[in-house]
User: Fold these one by one.
Assistant:
Number 1:
Amino acid sequence: MTGLSDSFQRPIDYLRISVTDRCNLRCRYCMPAEGIRLMPHADILSYEEIYDVAATAAGLGINKIRITGGEPLVRIGLPELVRMLVQLDCMDDISLTTNGTLLAYYAAELKSAGLRRVNVSLDTLKPDKFKQITRGSRLDEVQKGIEVARSAGLNPLKINVVVMPGVNDDELLDFAARTVHDGWHIRFIEHMPFGENTPSSPFIPLTEIKQRLAALGELEPCSVRGNGPAKYFRLPQAKGTIGFITPVSEHFCFHCNRLRLTADGKLRPCLLSEEEIDLRQPLRNGISSTELKSLIEKAVARKPLRHRLADGRVPQGRPFSQVGG
Ligand code: SAM
Ligand code: SF4
């Protein structure tokens, strides 16, 4: 096996799999209040179909998988999919991104199924604001999920914080302090424009966030296990770390190593471009593994060099929750 690389010689070894477009929250930056038009159940790949794609991709050199959504834990039997995926040879890492609301129930089962670690999305530490951002959900459920998952050994558990000026940027220091006092691994993510959810106010540049965090001490560069584009730092005496993900201000496309599989079976070469290659129909028509390999290779070959947000090219098709963010 020589591994996959795209037309710009970037090695591609990471597959993000969206297992559902359903979600039990309605985060304001991700979904409209009334939700989205849901995919019919019949259009959603079965776990066996997802496994077939993952196994073929693994044969081509994919060795890291992240399960995402929608909210992956609303899909029944998710630990079973984890159990199937961990059987794949050469798989270095299987992880999950979740809103954390159901994590307290599933953490132990996910761990024993073979999941290594989780990322939890949490944009505020204030219960009222949490309700407002998610349109009605409870912060204590997510906090409990985080604690249960850490105790179950799903580590390093990373907290994803989408920074929204005027909404939660007053909490940057509170989040950062958790890296010192509770050993949390926090990642501040720039709010990306996506379809109708284009932010009304500009994002806060990384340099400014860093300046604000200087009130807590000097940030030392460090590294954390993971497959993504975050740049990590540590405050003095902190067990946890602070990561920055800057898709808008400092894009990391030149190091992109990923493909995405949508819940309805499309391979998406780039989150921020709308091109997709259908695998569902070929899979249901009994495609051979050689043909499936060719479709995966075709998707890799179609990866664009970089996104074009700076030129105002914002994806307008599917919402973020459908392409597995
Ligand atoms: N439901 C799960 C969750 O919230 O973690 C997984 C799916 S969610 C689409 C994946 C990630 O995308 C979350 O961390 C969420 O905060 C992030 N996200 C959604 N919309 C975003 C946007 N417009 N800009 C930046 N991140 C976004
Ligand atoms: Fe659901 Fe995650 Fe989107 Fe929030 S960010 S609405 S939890 S899919």
Number 2:
Amino acid sequence: MSERAPGFKRILGIETSCDETAVSVIENGTHIRSQLVYSQIKSHQAFGGVVPEVASRMHTEKIHSLIDTCLRESALSLAQIDAIAVTYGPGLEGALLVGLAAAKAMAAGANKPLIPVNHLEGHMYAHFLSDTPPEFPFICLLVSGGHTLLAQVNDHHDILQLGSTRDDAVGEAFDKVARVLSLGYPGGPIVEKMAKTGNPKAFSFPRALRQSPFEFSFSGLKTAVLQQVNRLQEPLPIADLCASFQQAVIDTLISKSFYACNHLSIPRLILSGGVAANQSLVSQFKDQASKQDLQVYAVAPKLCTDNASMIAARAYHVPPVDPSIIQATPQLSL
Ligand code: KG4
Ligand code: ZN
């Protein structure tokens, strides 16, 4: 295993790629001293989704007080921080710029190294905020609002994307189905709650792209739910629709992830991203894995959704760079 990064002892992380303003201080790459996440959800709810300009403005309003509070809660001064980590992509450009400006100003003002972090790698590194992180190599299923992908992670500097979604991300599908059912935004947690009392076999929704093991497609599933809703009478069987939709998602994710593990002979799988906060998904992955000698790793829901601890955890393994060359990169991939 290669370990090229210096591994700064105390890293302050900043994450502003979408609709959470987040700041954390972590120690030794594994221990969270303080984690603050300000969710903008209420400001976006009226629009049924994230409005980029509103997101940037809210980040600007919140970021400085969150940094102050985070340092105070960590019982550290800025002088005691060894490096600043910041998400530089992927995400909304204006939102990323707010975090980058704050991080660059702090790094320049306090003469600290600055470490740019890929948000997608950050999601994976939520699993390193632990005394027992997964051993290399492992497969990662990353399921969030903007991304759905499978990756093979050989070591800290060898991350290979195996496949991704051709259309909607899984979280996006949850959000769109919730909108069709008038359940509100964000859809994932509400659909999960409704699904608990529903029958997952009530409706037969498609499990797409069985023939392309590492590729995903969720827009057909979303349309199938919409068409089913149009055929039904009020009151809609919301619980059954949610449970059947969620089961189609889980079945697809399990079969593709386990195929990757078996095909590549890598018996470890980590679940990352906001959708991995779904406890029904996690328990079904674990149940199925125990029958196949695969090990599935999940983290607490608050480490699945966007946060800055995962950004700082990734930064522990990444070298700092000259701040002047770091740019917001909205379309950054793995
Ligand atoms: O990782 P994340 O916080 O932000 C992105 O990087 O996109 O993921 C947010 C997504 C949203 O689409 C949200 O609906 C979904 O994760 N999500 C869930 C759950 N909690 C959040 N989806 C399913 N079940 C959940 N419990
Ligand atoms: Zn995310």
